[in-house]
Amino acid sequence: MNDDPQDRDRDPGGPMAHGIAHYPVLERRVSDNPWKAAAVGERRHRSVPGQPLPAGKRPSEPLPDPSDWTFELIERYHAAIAATAERFGLDTYPNQLEIITAEQMMDAYSSVGMPVNYRHWSYGKEFLATERRYRRGHMGLAYEIVINSNPCISYLMEENTTAMQALVIAHAAYGHNSFFKGNYLFRMWTDASSIIDYLVYAKDYVAQCEDRYGLAEVEQLMDSCHALANFGVDRYRRPSRKTLARERQERAQREAYAQQQVNELWRTLPTRPGKEGAVEENTRFPQEPQENILYFIEKHAPLLEPWQREIVRIVRKIAQYFYPQRQTQVMNEGWATFWHYTLLTTLYDEGHLSDGVMIEWLGSHTNVVYQPPVGHRAYSGINPYALGFAMYRDIQRICQNPTAEDRHWFPDIAGTPWLPTLDHAMRNFKDESFIGQYLSPHLMREMRLFAVHDDARQSELLVSDIHDENGYRNLRQTLSQQYDLGTREPNIQVWNVNLRGDRSLTLRHTQYQGRPLGDDTQEVLKHVARLWGFGVQIEGVDAYGNNATVLHQVPPPAV
């Protein structure tokens, strides 16, 4: 069977929801009526200068620094930050700053951090839990949310002080914004100019389905789609892009085409085993394993209605929007943190910021980049802000003041202009390759990194790599692998469909370093079976594809 090659994930955009003081994954929408604070025009891309462009005349006095901000004051701070960012060659989408309340920030915590999105019960449940934790003082709130759109929308919390508004403008509106526009994963998978329009379309379409088919029916379908969202992305194929108008225009044609393919696939009736005249089918379907499970279900599930296929499509496309985020947290947060530090420090040195503003934002910055030591009650692994910020600062150091060790490890960048070097690193890497390329022995010593080998067959842990020539290389490789999605998420693919028998779907899990699947595998398979309409099983193989064993089975869903 042939899939429509022109239909492969035309992602119109990709949101990035982010919190600077507290960094969960933020989801869903902000209120429909935020207050607009400021905006600047489109910035044309230009080559990055080797050194920052010279500053203008030093001001006679710094910007006012009252604790309570005003819109006029935010505009003045924004203008100063924008001018400084221009001198450093930061290439951004136009900026739109909007103010939201703490309650609206909690609403954003609870869903995908977008101005508009479809409704789902899980968003309301998470909002209530977030509100309860916040009111009891068990958690803080993000100071801002930034959306990968064109114009780039930055939401600033109403309760922020003037100094904190300046910090988050530099962090979100120029740090994250320039990363969204520049990094190759976001350029490949997202179209920032149409994300908001597509989400409006998705919200309207889901609402129409709820009115026509019932809220319970739609939510049950979306529950199953959400359970498989991380397995609904293409990892290696660049999608062709479509405008929203073309999406709408071709929806009916797409639905008819998909149904025609499904009808062709299932036009034969199943035959009883051993029946005379039964045809033995040796060709596996699909002929090649399929990594995008939601895409396969959308195109081939025999019992889905056209409206159900469209909702599967909506969920998997939104999951694709988040795909760059999951691979660039260290780089993205580190880049934004580096630039809020650089821009605001430059403004202070040139007389634009007062001592009070400087001390306040530096206090918050210090908390953001703090790396708790192992054994500390706050330790939960490596802080992505701390690692990313330290790496960009270290690249700057290698360019400006290289040591003999730096020249040995990084001969291509040692002593070169730092702005083009940082820009190249931001644009052309993801977390895994960024760490593998740029983590230096100097920074490993500064962060006191070492590697521990945990062998389940041994009673003791082994410190496998320390600070020596071989240890540095192995440390860098080990840390890099921890940010590879292939090591963090199970490798599960569509393996086979029993076309001539019971129509069951077989998934295949390829183990990584002998790791088994989680305890919730059976529950996830129930969602697969609900979407597929027939029985589902998952089999496991070793890293070489051998020794296939059925791990879990789910019977056909009850009619």
| Unreliable parts | 1-44, 276-280
Structural class: alpha+beta
Radius of gyration over all CA atoms, rounded: 26 Å
Q: Estimate the global geometry from the Cα principal axes.
A: globular
Mean pLDDT: 83
Task: Describe the structure in your own words.
- The structure is a single chain.
- With 559 residues, the chain is α+β, with helices and mostly antiparallel strands.
- It contains 22 helices and ten strands.
- The chain has helices spanning 71-87, 102-109, 121-135, 162-182, 184-189, 195-213, 215-227, 244-249, 251-265, 293-300, 306-321, 323-327, 329-349, 355-368, 384-400, 404-409, 418-428, 431-438, 441-446, 469-482, 485-488, 521-532, and strands spanning 35-39, 95-100, 144-147, 152-157, 451-453, 462-465, 491-497, 505-510, 536-541, 549-554.
- A four-stranded mixed beta sheet has the order 1-2-4-3. A four-stranded mixed beta sheet has the order 7-8-9-10, covered by helices on one side. A two-stranded antiparallel ribbon has the order 5-6.
- Strand 5 and strand 6 form a beta hairpin.
- Helix 6 crosses helix 7 (215-227), helix 7 (215-227) packs across helix 22 (521-532) and helix 13 (329-349) packs across helix 15.
- The radius of gyration is 26 Å and the shape is globular.
